[in-house]
Amino acid sequence: MSDCLFCKIIKGDIPSKKVYENDNVYAFEDLNPQAPHHILFIPKHHISTINEATPENAKHFGALFAGVKEYAAEIGVDEPGYRVVMNCNADAGQTVYHVHLHFLAGRSLTWPPG
Ligand code: AMP
Ligand code: ZN
Asked: Among candidates 111, 41, 107, 33, which has minimal Cα distance to 77?
């Protein structure tokens, strides 16, 4: 999608602080971090919202979790723990319409979220 912010980040047209990448996933620091580690994991394939999930594109969602698992172990937060969040549409606070898994770690997180 040519007008999508995160597609532009994947292409390198907009700068980002990359922390992890594989064939299907790109991950970079959130501009407005809510925890010591606040990373956005995005599929390289454009999908706007969770409402577009299908059996055919499920692998792109699965790849995000596989990437998160690897990265969490790499930075040593797999045992203390971390949170992943994916917002869908306005009521959840989605502002960028390319699905992304927020990865939050490095502090004790409260529940429920706001
Ligand atoms: P959401 O509200 O779930 O759609 O999350 C979008 C996230 O993208 C927010 O946490 C923003 O801080 C973050 N964000 C927006 N633009 C950029 C950017 N250029 N680089 C890194 N993070 C960004
Ligand atoms: Zn996109």
From this structure: 107
